Amino acid sequence: MSSAGHIDHAHRHSRQVRFGPVGAEGQRRLGAGRVVIVGCGALGTASAMAVLRAGVGSGGGFLRLVDRDLPEASNLPRQMLFDEADVAAGIPKAAAARRRLEAIDSSARIEAVVADLTAGNASEILSGADVIVDGTDNFEARFLINEWSCRAGVPWVHGGAIGSEGRVMTIVPGRTACLRCLVPEPPAAGSLPTCDTAGIIGPAAFVVGAVQAAETMKLLVDGPAAVRSVLLAFDLWEGRWRSVDLSPLAAAGCPTCRAGDSPWLEGRLGGRATVLCGRDAVQVASATSARADLASIAERLRPAGRVTVNDWLVRAEVEPGILLSIFADGRAIVQGTRDESRARAMLARYVGS
Ligand SMILES: [Zn+2]
Known about the structure:
Radius of gyration: 20 Å
CATH topology of the largest domain: Rossmann fold
Number of helices: 15
Order of helices and strands: HHHEHEHHEHEHEEHHHEEHHEEHEEEEH
CATH superfamily of the largest domain: NAD(P)-binding Rossmann-like Domain
Bound molecules: zinc ion
Structural class: alpha/beta
Mean pLDDT: 90
Number of strands: 14
Strand order of the largest sheet: 3-2-1-4-5-6-7-8
Strand content: 15-25%
């Protein structure tokens, strides 16, 4: 019996049960809810904290945390489940997050999966979910989730945050617009800012995580029929909030949500990582056919480290011992590691591909 076994769950959740739309039956559904959170960064830790505290996984359901990375000091301002000891110990984020959440609710079933979501393991990782939450930092993972979710008919909650801005979009296959309806093709490598080049403030991520958690609770309590096709976007620094009606996009649909087209899931598109023979380096193939804009990539990498640029590539030492080279065709080489997942994480972090 756990040390917290004496805590009365009816009492613990009494304020939430008193909230009319939840009630006792809603609370039961939350406890039985099966939620997979992909990515345990700022969004993933915020949403995991909120749904766990709401009771998800404590009544027959589960909370599954998936992440490929380790926590580092620069994560601590916004990744709320980690502390200095986790950074020093080098515990994977998914495992560190599970340990922290188990201390909050010892009755919840929490699974930690230390892995990079790929076409090969997507089914294994996402199966069994009632709701999938996007805590990722790259479009490849999001497109994989979108395609899997459209095929399986499982709702997912897309989220993103950068600077002081955030956005959330709940996708219910067959009912709302999907990610591909909104973003027909992933942006070219380096064409968008990332948190590591443009920066981010913690509260922007906390708000996105909180909205994602609320969307997850609504899906578990009321079911997918209650979801509207909207994109919520805000800028905390400017104090601007807007809700964009996506029902025209939903009505039109796209090859993925209409016909199950799944180029990422089937491996026809995607960043293919290969450890380079005889070198301490990994090559990652381009995730898109668009050509990279080297000048703008160089500009955005400048705050991260020393950058050199020529006609063929941009090169930057983004972390001690880690050298990124991004080629005009979108291909990249990450020197200083032989770990494919780490190389892809570095690219997602600094180049946003
Ligand atoms: Zn679609």
